[in-house]
Sequence to fold (340 residues):
Amino acid sequence: MALAADILENIRGFSKAMYSTWVFYRPARALFDAGEGVATALGNFVFAVEQAFLSHGHYDHVGGVAGFVLARAAAMGEKTKPLEIHYPEGDGLVEMARDYARRIGRNVQYPLAWKAIGAGAHIRVTGTDAPWRVRSFRTSHVRGMLTLGYALEETRRRLRPELQGLPEDEIKKRARSGGRDAVTEEYRRTLLAYTGDAMPVDPADVRGAVVLMHDATFLDGKDRETKTHATVEEALDVAKAAEVETLLLYHVSTRYRRRDIEAGIRDLARKRGLAAPLHLLHLGKLAPLPDGMAGDADSTRGPPPTGSGGAGDAPRQAPGTAATRREEPSPPVAPPKPAC
Ligand SMILES: [Zn+2]
Fold:
């Protein structure tokens, strides 16, 4: 569980359904989606991002991408660092955002690569020496539109199962004669999975994730009019079926008040029998959902850790994320219904 806590501690993000969603995972120098306000919130951390992975082209997920690209060219920082932006192939909305960014970004000097990908792509993570890659997987959001989720995977080695229980001397002997592959095998585990906007994903795509971030737009399935977003209950069931270690829900509709969201999720988790710890990213606040015994739902997150390289003189707290943000009132009328 220490690893899950470490991953959660390194996530910065914002999610307000239909307005903006983005998630920055600093150890991988990766940005998942780029909703409006991402560059403003990250400040000089824009230079800490080397790869972006867009789930789909709806405005609330790409509305900030042009600003992000330009901020990386204009703000104070290392303006020569390359940037890759991966997106679902054939997504005309992302292509429009890309073309707009190109048109207004003629001062972009750094190598910038827009890469259309399909489901099942494996992309090496360039921002770390760790053996990490990002795997894309298909999600169900809008009919006829390829939308992608992403799984950050780590490659590890383990003792071959058939050698379990053998004396250490015997294993060493086999390694000396047959080499590393004779005694160990490679396997991958998902550190962080991100679904973008989605109906419940296939548990096989996120199996065993240390942290699963799943769309959880609706507390009550009766509020859903079109099958484009998951309910909390569905997200809980995916987490249970996939045996994830920790579930981080996000993209919860702002029609609900925060206290109702937190209480509702806890109740549903009890009913569905999910034992995994729950967290919520709502607006800019990422916090655990206590089960009544541990944690503090109102606790706020500390600043991003400072490490070597990358962010340089970046501020310790990305403005607009979490710590100082106040809960927003519920809108007085039902929110509009653009595609998102
Ligand atoms: Zn969408």
Remarks:
- The longest strand covers residues 147-159.
- The two ends are 33 Å apart (CA to CA).
